[in-house]
Structure formats: C-alpha cells, structure tokens
C-alpha cells in the first residue's frame, strides 16, 4: 500500500515528514505562494508551496510550482512534505509544506458538474457528485446503520438469508413486474423477498433477516420511488399478532439510530443542521381509521376512494404525532383488507381489517409489516378473493401445507430511512446509483 | 410472542412447567406410552405421554393420546408440560411430560421427501429439506461468517455499497448475460458489481465492500455453478499491486474462519466430521506458470489451449500445497493477459501477464482478484485489444478521466466458501434457494 496518513489523523500527528493521498479539491495559484486543498475519504488538508525567488526577486526554476499550476481539480495524487501545526489554518489547524507530488491520474481540466448543477446532471456524473463530503457521509451513515441492525439480528440469533431475485412468478402483483429472458423460458425479478423469507418459517429457521435488492417496474417519478431499491427484511416465528413485529421493528430502529448518533451525530449536525433523535419506545400506534379521523379533524380529507392513506395524510398524521407525542415515528395499524395483499392475516372476527401496519417516519412511509396468514385454507380463500389463481401460487401455498408456525415480519426501504433521517429531499441522494424509469446509467 | 423456552435452553432450565414450540420430527406411538420428538430452530426434545388406564388395565378416555396419535410429521405446535431432567434420555438429558398440545398448523401426513430422496427432489421441497439440522447449521454458519467479515470491514472504515443490479450494458462479457425488459428499452442483470465498485474509487470512498446477488446466464450444470449467486466484493484505493489485495483477502478470511470455528467448530465436527482450520498467513502464493509446471511434474498436463488452469489442475495444485505447506488456501498469481478481463492491470514491462490472482480453497477456485488498470489511455487500449468498443464502455471509462487512485479488489462466491469449508459436494447445498438453467422454483 502507498504509505500515507489519513487526513483526519494529521491534527493528532507530530510535525515532520508526512505523505497524504487524495484528490485535488481546489488550487489557489498566487504569485508568491501556492495552496492546494487535497481531500481523501477522511477529510481535507491544505498543501502549501512558497514559490522560489532569487534574492533580487526574480523567479527561479521551480518545477514543483509548475506542477501545481498544472493541477486540474479532481487529479488524484500523493503529496509529501513537512507537516506543520498552525492554528491560523482553518482546515484542521495543520498544513503540509510540499516537497513532492506524485500524480496517480490527472483529471480532465473541465469538470462536467458544478455546485449548482441540477439533480439529473449530478446523477450523470454521480462518481464526481459523490466526492462531496455530505455524499460521502451519507454512505458512511448507511454502513453504520446497517451494521448496527445486523449486529442486533446476529446477537439475537437471527439467520441471514440471501433469497433469489430470479423468480418463476410475481411475488407481489402482476403489475410493476420486470420480465427476464431465462434460457428457453422467462423469469421475473423479485418485487420483494416476501415468499422466500416466509419460506424460512416452515423451514424452521425461526428468525431471519435479509438486506438485498428488490425491483419494481413502477413508472412513477416521485422523490420516494425507484425501480431498484435496497429492501431491509425480517421475519419471525411464533408471534401472537403484528404487535410482536412492531416490537422487533422498534428495537431494531433504536439500535440503528443510537449507533448513527454516537458515530456521526456531530457531523450530521454540522453538515445538515439535523439532530439525530434516538426514538423512545414504544412508538405511538394509531389504527388507520382513527388516523383518518384525526387528519380530517385537522382539516384534511384524504382524497381516495379506497381506505388507504395518501402522502399528505401521512404528513398530517406525522405532524399530529410530533405535536402530541413529540415522536418522529408512528405505526399506523389495522389496515383494511381491501388494500392489503392476500397474505396479510385478517382480524379474528372481523374480516375487513388486517393484522398489519405501516411505519411512518417524519411524514413518509418507510415500511409495511404484518402477521402473515399461516392457515392454508384461509390463505387460499384470501388469494381467491383478491382474484388470484391458487394454482399459480401453488409452490408458495405448499409452504403452509406441511406445517408452519404463526409468523410475521416487515420490509423496509433502506434509502427512505436515510433520506428521512437526514432530511434529504429525494431518495436519489440516499442511493449510490439511482435506477428510475429513464435512468439506467451510469 | 408465544411464551416458550428455546429447546437448547432446556437442559439448563429447572424442572417444572415448561412450554416449547416447534415441529414434530417423529412420533413413537406405543401401547403404554407415547413419545414425540419436537424440534425447533435450536434443537430437539422428547415429549412423553403415558397413556391413561383404569386400575383394571382398561384404557381410559384420553384426548391427549388421541391428539398425539393423529400428529403428522412436520406439524407445528406448542407443547406444555413438566420439564424433567433424566440422564437416561439421550436427547439433552431432559424430557417434557405433556399436559397439552396447541397445534398451530397441521402438516399433510404424506411427506414428499425422504432421507434418501435425490438432490433435485430435495430442491423441489427445499423448505422441508432445510429442516434438517445440518442444513439449518449451514445458514447459521453463513450468518456468522458474513457478520465476521462485515465487522472486519466496518472496524477498518470500509463503506458498504449496494450497487445496482440493473445495468445498461454488460459488466463482464456479452456472453452469459440476462436481458430484462425495461419500460421502452432493455436492461441487463449485473454479472458482477465490477464497474460500480470501481466507481467508488474516483468517488473517493477509499475502501468499500458489498455482499449481493450476481447473475450469469451460464448454461452449465456443474457442482460449482449457479445462474444467481451471492458475490462478496471488496475494493481498495492506493494499492501498489495485487499483493495488497491478497493481504486484505487473507485478513478477511482469517477473521471469518476464526469466528466460525469459535461459534460452530464443535457442531461442525459433530455433524460433518470436519475440523475448521483457521488459515495461517501469509497464504502460499504461486505464479500460475509455476503452478502449471508443478502440476505437470505431478503427472497432470492441463488439457487447455489457453493459458488457464482447469478444475483438475486446481485440485492438483491444492494437493501439492496441502502436502508441501499444510495449507488449504493458495493464491495462484500473475495470470496471462489473454485469459483475464481488459480491466486487469498488466505487469510493468511485460504486457503478457496481469497483476491478478485466483484464490483456491480446498482445490476449488473461490475468488478472482486483481489490481485494476487506472490509466485511462492504457485501459482503452486493453479494451480494444479484447475486441471491445470503447464507445460502449464510455460511462465506465469516464470513471478514469476525472482522476482516480490506483486500486484493486476481489469478488468471491459466498456459497463456494461454505461448500468447501464444510466439505459439501455441491454448491446447491450451501445455497438457500438454488437457481440453475432449469431451476426457477420454488
């Protein structure tokens, strides 16, 4: 490996010889002295080179100065010189007096995006856009969040799954389904790991989790949708109702948010002015019907024919919860059977409602959870009532015919959690490479 | 949640009332006493019920006995009764004297697979096959292995990526590519995260990892291939050569194997008779040309026209390494440029060899790693020499035009590692749901 000091470690290093490697953020090419701001994955530092002059003030041969003048923004290089602490230097209180530059790859001088470039142009040049400290931090936060979740799962004896993304049939609905040419036949991309994470239940796995891609051929262009997204899924056995799933969900979010706050709270506050709040448990729970009444009392009538909430209704109920309980999360529970998939269990004694919930975070839905119907004869009836052919679902229904425990779980959109945690305006900012109806590149 | 004791915790529990939940493994329905072996995700326990008789020896009304007699293998239930320690009981030294059964879902009595069912039939009924303790353990080992790797990465400041699996073009070769209908155009499934994990380098992410699916439209039916597999990828900046990648790779494997040995070593030994060996570092490194000479000296001439090794050659060199160095791993290094992708860096001064390696574990290739060519003009020439059109790769070549650090990494097949660690005969056993040319179900 190149011998280098990570830039974030320079303030704690002692004065003397130092090498750093990174890319050129800015060059200030002044008459008497040159400054380069070099950034690596951990921070930025000022490199300085006083130009060489003879005693009479005439410029001397100065190859290093020429090299600095020729540096294009974005060029990756290793810089060596003398580290010096100087509290007048705003950038970390240190600078490096340059002795040599070793250029790894020179950048084309014209940078295709600027600070004011529009979102689509930024996505065209995502690898440059990601050089921004904010964007880098988003993915370090993602890393911390996921690792905290996985650590919770592993410490609680969950099994990690990688379910197949190639399927012989739809997992959710026949709409929004991508078709794949598969040798002499065709396959479909998994819209969720639903069937296969449930399969772990009759398999006797007990508690499972998966973090992986899901695909929706959804033609919408909202700030919350993508055709490919990272789905965070968990499923557990021997629940009594969706209440048990919500408890798991809460504990997981607390573990994740606590880890993010501990590791990145100060940076998040500095870069976005956002304070990460570790949620208190239990999160508020409001049955959907009551939530609609509350929203109506606030003067908003959800303009939908079905029984569902809409995005503005979710914002309204979130505002109510924030005002009333000072909480950023709310479980909306007991959705109507008419707007839930056939595999959600319905209330005992009231077929019109399900043992299900949506989790709203800062006004946007981030997750759907439910107890699953595990009684195969009931499941078949529910599938029929949704207009599905049980024959097509036979491989799935088999999971229930040879014994299965009561179970439930949730699926959650990773990028939505990040977007709402950091108050970003669009899921695209929280996705490494966004995929939408007109976006397959880079 | 159902109040239950995990079966593995029964031996340490005190005698008295206990409830366990799981599925019926066997029923021994004897005249005087009935035995049920119930299994959950953690183990198995014997439930016992002495049939009821009047003093004169005539049978009494005994609804519990009737319920037990009616139990089908696979039925999921909660059993309550009195826990009793009894060292004569082979299964954990405990049994539960039954008081009640609460059936969650009764199984169809005819079980579609038996102990001697063939592999394909087992895959048809994978959720039943997974109930076997060995199969359950495979995925608990997978969980431990992955978590150890991720912990290593996170503690070493790697960023976790989720790169898109939908692409506008091929990432590896135009052969073995799945095509997806994508709105008014078409997309391809990622054969590897190669381009996008490299993109993190000009993005300034430094060190990254990803565990996610990769797709190959490979029509082969070997014990090592699947059309969808879980790829373990890592990529790092500022390397001097592939040697730096191999060092990372070794450290990661040591961390993973140490965690598996510590947590599951005894179970693995008990179930498979396999001792997990934490590899010593450095792993042996043998240039491919030398490996071919060694194999030839052992009497095996690799029957290939190109410069590559073949599976038997890999077994032979692994046997040599085991005999000579007592090591299960070997890096074969410096593959010929002719058999490596265009993006592998070639030797300084010898265009015919690459800064690359394959990692062989117990005789089978589990990974390919390399230093990547980061000099765009060299990269363009190498692409052309492979018959590729630089125009089609333009979005990828752009990653190198605006500055990029020297970098390298590897991709590794998760199921192959598990298969070889546990001495399984087929990757299908180490895959939750296998996908092959004729296998899309369940």
UniProtKB/TrEMBL annotation, chains A, B:
Catalytic activity line of the entry: tRNA(Asp) + L-aspartate + ATP = L-aspartyl-tRNA(Asp) + AMP + diphosphate
Segments of this protein annotated with the region Aspartate: 194-197
Gene Ontology MF term list: aspartate-tRNA ligase activity; ATP binding; RNA binding
Residues engaged in binding L-aspartate: 172, 216, 368, 372
Signal sequence bounds: none
Positions contributing to ATP binding: 365, 413-416
GO CC terms: aminoacyl-tRNA synthetase multienzyme complex; cytosol
EC number in record: 6.1.1.12
SUPFAM superfamilies reported in the protein's UniProt record: Class II aaRS and biotin synthetases, Nucleic acid-binding proteins
Keywords in alphabetical order: Aminoacyl-tRNA synthetase, ATP-binding, Cytoplasm, Ligase, Nucleotide-binding, Protein biosynthesis
Domain of life according to the entry: Bacteria
Domain named Aminoacyl-transfer RNA synthetases class-II family profile: residues: 139-442
Classification via CDD domains: Asp_Lys_Asn_RS_N
One GO biological process term: aspartyl-tRNA aminoacylation
NCBIfam families: PRK05159.1 (NF003483)
Known function: Catalyzes the attachment of L-aspartate to tRNA(Asp) in a two-step reaction: L-aspartate is first activated by ATP to form Asp-AMP and then transferred to the acceptor end of tRNA(Asp).
Subunit-structure text: Homodimer.
Stated family: Belongs to the class-II aminoacyl-tRNA synthetase family. Type 2 subfamily.
PANTHER family per UniProt: ASPARTATE--TRNA LIGASE, CYTOPLASMIC, ASPARTYL-TRNA SYNTHETASE
Protein name: Aspartate--tRNA ligase
């Amino acid at each position: 490996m190149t011998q280098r000091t990570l830039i974030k470690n320079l303030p704690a290093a002692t004065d003397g010889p130092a090498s750093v490697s990174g890319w050129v953020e800015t060059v200030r090419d002044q008459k008497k002295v040159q400054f380069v701001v070099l950034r690596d994955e951990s921070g930025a530092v000022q490199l300085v080179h006083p130009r060489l002059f003879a005693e009479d003030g005439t410029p001397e041969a100065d190859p290093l100065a020429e090299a600095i003048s020729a540096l294009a923004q974005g060029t990756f290089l290793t810089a060596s010189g003398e580290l010096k602490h100087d509290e007048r230097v705003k950038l970390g209180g240190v600078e490096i007096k340059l002795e040599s530059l070793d250029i790894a790859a020179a950048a084309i001088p014209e940078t295709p995006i600027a600070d004011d470039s529009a979102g689509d142009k930024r996505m065209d040049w995502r690898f440059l856009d990601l050089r921004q400290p904010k964007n880098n931090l988003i993915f370090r936060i993602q890393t911390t969040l996921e690792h905290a979740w996985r650590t919770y799962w592993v410490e609680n004896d969950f099994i990690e799954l990688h379910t197949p993304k190639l399927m012989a049939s739809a997992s959710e609905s026949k709409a929004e389904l991508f078709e794949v040419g598969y040798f002499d036949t065709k396959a479909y991309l998994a819209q969720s790991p639903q069937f296969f994470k449930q399969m772990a239940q009759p398999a006797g796995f007990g508690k499972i989790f998966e973090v992986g891609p899901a695909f929706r051929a959804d033609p919408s262009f909202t700030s919350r949708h993508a055709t490919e997204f990272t789905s965070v899924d968990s499923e557990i056995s021997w629940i009594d109702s969706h209440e048990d799933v919500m408890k798991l969900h809460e504990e997981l979010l607390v573990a994740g948010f606590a880890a993010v706050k501990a590791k990145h709270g100060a940076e998040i506050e500095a870069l976005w002015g956002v304070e990460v709040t570790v949620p208190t448990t239990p999160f508020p729970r409001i049955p959907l019907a009551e939530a609609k009444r509350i929203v109506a009392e606030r003067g908003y009538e959800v303009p939908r024919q079905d029984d569902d909430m809409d995005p503005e209704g979710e914002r309204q109920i979130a505002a109510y919860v924030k005002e009333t309980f000072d909480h950023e999360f709310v479980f909306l529970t007991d959705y109507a059977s008419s707007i839930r998939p056939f595999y959600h269990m319905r209330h005992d004694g009231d077929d019109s409602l399900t043992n299900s919930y949506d989790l709203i975070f800062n006004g946007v839905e981030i997750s759907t959870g439910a107890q699953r119907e595990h009684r195969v004869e009931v499941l078949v009836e529910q599938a029929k009532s949704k207009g599905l052919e049980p024959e097509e679902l036979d491989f799935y229904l088999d999971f229930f015919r040879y014994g299965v425990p009561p179970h439930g779980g949730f699926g959650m959109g990773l990028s939505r959690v990040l977007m709402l945690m950091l108050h970003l305006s669009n899921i695209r900012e929280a996705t490494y490479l966004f995929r939408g109806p007109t976006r397959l590149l880079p």
